[in-house]
Amino acid sequence: MKIGIGLPNQVLGTDPAAIPSWAAQAEQAGFEILGTVGRIAYPGVMDTVALAAAAASTHSAELLSAVLLGPVWPPVLLAKEVAGIDGMAARGQRFDQDLGVYQRVWKGGRIGDGPNAAVTPGAREIPLLFGGHAMASYERMARWGTGYIGGSVPAPMVASSFEAARAAWDKAGREGSPRLVALAYFTLGDAERGRSNVWDFYSMLGEQFAGLVTGGIAIGPDAVRETVTAFAGLGATDLILNPAVGDPQEINRLADIVL
pTM above 0.90? Predict the structure, then answer.
C-alpha cells in the first residue's frame, strides 16, 4: 500500500504561498503521492490551484485530487486545467455527459465547431478515481475510471464501499482490480487545533457527520500506525493522510512514522 500526504489547501488559515514549499518538502521526505481536498464554498485554496502549485514544485510525485466536484465545473475548462496540471438526478446525468467530454478533450478532439483542440499535443487521458455511495457512482467508476476513493471515515465504514467497487469492476468485465484509495486525517502536533479545523470544514454536513470525521482523526504516532494497518487490511492500494493542521513540521513527523 502506497502512503501519500495531503496538501493543506483546505486547512483553515492556510497561507496559499506555503503550498509549493509544502509539496516540495513532502516529496523530499519520500511521499510518492500528494493529495488535495476540493471545495468551493470554503475559505481554502482551490484544488486545481493547489495541484498546479505542487506540480511546479515537485519532480515525480503523483498528484491526486481526493475530492473534486466535477459537475460544478464547465467540462471543457476542467479537462483543460487538469491536462495542463498533468503536463508540467440531473447533476448525475450531466456528469455522465461531462465524462465523455473529458475523454474527447484529452484525446485532442476539436472543441465546438472550431478547428482547434483544447490541450497541447501529447496530452494523456487523465486517470479518474470516483467516490460516492450510489450505485451509479460504482458504475461510473467501472466504466470510466481506474479506481475508487473512499470517504474520510474510519476504516470499518469504508469496507463495504471497497467491496461494492470491486463487484462493479468485475460486473463491467474490467481486467485486474480497481485502485482503492483511502483517506484519513492525522495530526502529530496540536490535537485540539486539528479537531477544530476538521470540525469547521465538515460542520456544514451536520454535527453527526462532522463528529464522525473529527472522531476519526489519527492523533499521535500510535493512532497513525493503527490507521495504516486498518486500511491495509481492507486491501487499500493507497492511503492519503490529510493534515488536520497546516504546520509543515507535520510532514517529517509523519514520514518518520509511515515511510
Answer: no
